[in-house]
């Protein structure tokens, strides 16, 4: 991945000259190399070094900030309106000064990076600027809490080869006027790691404080050595409610009512993902409102269908869920997939 810092005069490249972008898949290395060369030639570069000394960064010292990761499909940012809303909401929640000028410059830069990547991801990290106060403290006036913003870009092969037909609504709403990507069905496993609970207004934010996610991802990687077919893990909160995936949100259906989609509430633990909200809105337009419902241990054997989702990969159907020493077979017929 190649990184840039957003400045008033354009994008300041942080990666060293000649460094290659890291692709999302091994098959995309040639595309990534091309993108690295193109980015150097067409993105405004003001300096080869960072504008702020790294040890002073509140993002590094305190996790004081947040991030969002956007899929790039055929040169277009996926679900840009929803990501814009996330940035606005998160900046307000964290008392960050996110000016209209900064917002305009950010999105024009992000769209340019997406255009050159063609397929892959664009990641945005936002942090509070350094403060004159000691420790965690920040200035009480929001005008003195400006944003430091970094953008990373990585090219890849096509993110998906099909769309989630069950989510197509033919709506005229511009924010929903694109198709949700869909992956091939996967095997998932229930993890022992737990998600931390947070108070409002921090609950649901995609903040830079992600140690619970780091530990869950580490457990998933260890389990993959035993179960190499596993692609995602289901994670519970500290009350034992199954809340989300390691890198995704989750939706499920229960027998015998297989017409309703449920998703766990994100009240204290977990992230209110962009794709989660897209799917809630898509199904609402269809007249099939999603019901927020806690997913408990006793519900697992009654699940008839399940999918994970995130803003990069779209819908990720689950064909099998490993619960302790049991393997639960789940239906994938709704996704128009054979096998």
Low-confidence stretches: 20-51
Which whole number gives the mean pLDDT?
Answer: 89
Whole-number total of structural domains: 2
**Element pattern in H and E:** EEHHEEHHEEEEEHEEEEHEEEE
The total count of strands amounts to 17
What's the SSE blueprint?
Layout: E1 2-7, E2 10-13, H1 29-42, H2 58-62, E3 65-73, E4 76-77, H3 80-93, H4 100-117, E5 120-128, E6 147-155, E7 162-163, E8 181-182, E9 186-195, H5 211-226, E10 230-237, E11 242-245, E12 249-254, E13 262-263, H6 274-285, E14 291-292, E15 303-310, E16 314-323, E17 326-329
Notes on the structure:
This protein has 2 domains: 2-155, Aminotransferase class 4, branched-chain amino acid transferase, N-terminal domain (D-amino Acid Aminotransferase, Chain A, domain 1), CATH 3.30.470; 162-335, D-amino Acid Aminotransferase, subunit A, domain 2 (D-amino Acid Aminotransferase, Chain A, domain 2, Alpha-Beta Barrel), CATH 3.20.10. The two termini are 35 Å apart. 23% of the residues lie in helices and 29% in strands. A hairpin with a 2-residue loop joins β16 and β17 (326-329). The chain contains 6 helices and 17 strands. The strands form 4 sheets. Strands 9, 10, 11, 12, 15, 16 and 17 form a 7-stranded mixed sheet that branches. The protein has a 6-stranded antiparallel sheet with strand order 2-1-6-5-3-4. It has 339 residues and is of the alpha+beta class. The protein has helices spanning 29-42, 58-62, 80-93, 100-117, 211-226, 274-285; strands spanning 2-7, 10-13, 65-73, 76-77, 120-128, 147-155, 162-163, 181-182, 186-195, 230-237, 242-245, 249-254, 262-263, 291-292, 303-310, 314-323, 326-329. Residues 20-51 have low confidence and may be disordered. It is globular and about 55 Å long.
